[in-house]
Amino acid sequence: MTARKPRSSLFRPQKPVDQSLLEDNKSLVDTINRRNVLRGSISLGAISMLTGCNVTDQAPVQSFLKSVSQWNDRAQAALFRPNHLAPTYAPSQVIKPARFNAFYDITELEPVDVPNWKLELAGQISDKRAWTAQQLAALPEQEMIIRHVCVEGWDYIGQWSGVNLRYFLERIGADLTAKYVSFKCADTYYSSIDMPSALHPQTILATKYAGAPLTEPFGAPLRLRTAVKLGFKNPKWITAIEVTNTYPGGYFEDRGFNWFSGI
Amino acid sequence: MEPIAPEPPPAKRHLHPLPLRVMHWVNAVFMLIMIMSGWQIYNDEVLFGWLHFPSWMTMGAGPEGGLLWHFFAMWILVINGIVYTGYGLRTQRFRRMLFPIRVPDVIAEVRNALKLKLHHDDLTQYNPVQKLLYLGVLIVITIQVLSGLVIWKPIQFSELTFLFYDFQGARLAHFLGMAAIVGFLVIHVVLALLVPETLKAMWTGGPMVDSAPEHSMDDAQADRPEPQSDGA
Q1: Which of the residues A92, A111, B142, B171 has the least number of beta carbons within 10 Å of its own beta carbon?
Q2: Is B13 part of the contact surface with chain A (CB cutoff 8 Å)?
Q3: Contact A179/A244 with Cβ under 8 angstroms?
């Protein structure tokens, strides 16, 4: 049988494909085989593992990095200047409203029931009676316009008012020689700071932003604002404060972020 | 009077003494960790909307992992940098190797380089462009240390923050410094590969050279001035 001559078509080349290029490079084509391609891809994979993040997922590496982070806590505590004030800014520089940030989206926010809200106290405190919002509002108010710096890298200038934390800790008879002040929040968030940062003049329990009571997204009725820590060390919707010598950790801190996180 | 001892033969040592080679390769490894973990941190809040580093180029799982690596490599580079600076000043290596830099020499050498005429007949001598690049990268590293301190502690080091206008200025400077170091790294590696003797010398120590005569004999061997910089 002879092969039928194909009908001419617009979609079929009029001339047969030129094979000379394949002939000229026969030796090169012969070297391309499946085994070599596989071997090459394995090498490429090995190189990418060297540069990629896979190494960092190993448990011994993680525990080593964690101990370096604890060393960094101590280094930061040594660098901390207890009476060095953060720069403050003009009211015209304050952004309104503040920038929202949490471990969930703003639409998932569950507001605190303020009339029934109480601030619980625990740990090395002589007067552990709980506080209502009205009682806190009667305390002397401190206002500061400071820069909020997030661990991610963004920042904004905000105007915060509330009771000075050192004043409050003295008022409730807290042991100011304890190591940690720990905070629990209505949304299950928690965090803690070192005592020297808690006693810094620019650390307050804020109840107002830009002169008006805190709104729901920004921690109503009570949140921490300190000029000497990154944003995530400023818990919102505080429901309990504990003064303790036992390391309390924190939501992000327990997930690998540095605990001291001073700025 | 003591009898005059016969003149000892001139002391010989490697072109790159061992301490220098150790510092160079420690720097190489931890600079890469610093850069790749820095890209991971950058990705969490980018400065430029068009620029995200692909995950295979970054180091650390998530921003927290990047931060852990960054603040580990930081300490190694701080120690390495302090030792290197002390070494460079004590042996007068910086002064001898990086200066003088004359503008006409630089222009002539750039012209040669563009014609792909790289003069590396003598490994022990730096050409003017090399001097300029090595001095430049040392200055950039200094800026990286300062801007890094400001990003890490904008309040504790608030006296330094004004150098970069504000916190965001320091972030931008830190990013541009990284870009300059990466640019240097590309040129440095390409030139080392084009003239492989330089790469080999940084590994094995290179040829034996005379110790500089004007230095007193009580100096430790490694502290003697050298006719060749390490190419930080």
Answers
A1: A92
A2: no
A3: yes
Contacts (Cβ under 8 Å, ≥6 apart) of B109? B119, B127, B128, B129
**Which of B36, B45, B62 lies closest to A153 in CB terms?**
B45
| B162 vs A: CB within 8 A | no
Task: Provide the pLDDT for residue A24.
Answer: 75
Q: A81: which strand partners?
A: none
Dihedral (C-alpha) A136, A138, A140, A145: value to the nearest 10 degrees? 60
Q: Pick from A212, A218, A222, A228: which is nearest to A260 by CA?
A: A228
Give yes or no for residue A88 having a pLDDT over 80. yes
Q: Which residue has the higher pLDDT, B17 or B36?
A: B36
pLDDT in tens, A27-47: 766 666 656 655 656 655 555
pLDDT single digits (tens) A213-262 = 999 999 999 999 999 999 999 999 999 999 999 999 999 999 999 999 99
Of A86-95, B116-125, B190-199, B201-210, the one with minimum mean pLDDT is B116-125
Q: What domains are defined for chain A?
A: 85-255 (3.90.420.10)
> Residue B176 has what pLDDT?
98
How do residues B47-67 score in pLDDT, each as one tens digit? 999 999 999 999 999 999 999
How far from B96 is each of A51, B19, B36, CA to CA, in Å?
37, 18, 33
CA B161 to chain centroid, in Å, comes to 25
Residue recorded with tokens 């006719």: B227
**Are the beta carbons of B193 and B199 closer than 8 angstroms?**
yes
Contact between B156 and A81 using a beta-carbon 8 Å cutoff: yes
Q: Does the beta-carbon distance from B64 to A155 stay under 8 Å?
A: no
Task: Give the gap in angstroms from C-alpha B137 to the nearest C-alpha of chain A.
Answer: 24
State how far the Cα of A260 lies from the Cα of A189, in Å rounded to an integer: 17
* Residue with the larger pLDDT of the pair A59 and A234: A234
What distances in angstroms separate CA A54 from CA A47, A206, A252, B71, B206, one per listed residue? 11, 42, 22, 19, 36
Q: Which of A89, A141, A144, A117 is nearest to A219 (CA)?
A: A117
Q: For residues B147 and B150, give the distance between their C-alpha atoms in angstroms, rounded to a whole number.
A: 5
Is this complex scored with an ipTM above 0.85?
A: no
